[in-house]
Design brief:
Blueprint lengths: L16 E2 L2 H10 L3 E5 L7 E2 L2 E2 H9 L4 E3 L4 H6 L6 E2 L2 H8 L13 E5 L3 H14 L4 E4 L10 E2 L5 H16 L6
Helix pairs in contact: 1-6, 2-6, 4-5
Length: about 180
């Protein structure tokens, strides 16, 4: 059963499907032009033994990335130059346009990681209602009912193992891009 992380989060009739890490990795690989949006919590959130920024920097080697808040610092410190920088509200507003893409091509899958729960919830709700051309996935350890797919609520240790599995799936094999 789907349980939102906060009890006040009432999403409506369409709620996220809980997704396993390997299935999420396969979905990312199958997407034509996925986009990873990384928030400021990635700099302070611990997932297992590593920081979330370490996981998303590894994903950034495979996917287009938009850094929000102070997460750009994590990418520049690790010499990941292809990360674009934009505020979350601005990127969500642009994603409503089915022709827009941070890399010049329209996106079909948007992945949220390290964004404050209340802000991610509003962004996901906006995309759910005003960007039907997009699918959304959250890689947080808190379930997001407004996404299409979400990791379930889990401890930080479980989250680290889930992100390890996800990275293994993303990096293992040809993703067709």
């Amino acid at each position: 059963m789907f349980e939102p992380w906060t009890t006040g989060n009432i999403p409506g009739q369409r709620v996220a499907t809980l997704i396993a890490p390997r299935a999420a990795g396969k979905g990312i690989k199958m997407a034509k032009n996925p986009l990873l949006i990384v928030g400021g919590l990635s700099m302070t959130a611990k997932a297992g033994e590593k920081m979330l920024i370490d996981y998303v920097v590894e994903m950034a080697k495979e996917l287009p990335v938009v850094a929000t808040a102070n997460s750009l610092k994590g990418f520049t410190e690790k010499n990941i130059a292809q990360a674009a920088y934009m505020g979350l509200v601005e990127i969500v507003d642009r994603l409503k346009d089915p022709e827009w893409g941070v890399n010049g091509k329209p996106h079909d899958l948007v992945i949220f990681a390290g964004i404050h729960y209340y802000l991610a919830s509003q962004g996901l709700s906006t995309l759910k209602h005003f960007a039907p051309h997009l699918k959304t996935l959250t890689l947080c350890n808190m379930a997001h009912p407004n996404a299409n797919w979400s990791f379930p609520n889990m401890s930080t240790d479980e989250w680290g193992r889930a992100l390890d599995e996800l990275l293994e799936e993303i990096k293992g094999g040809n993703n067709g891009r």
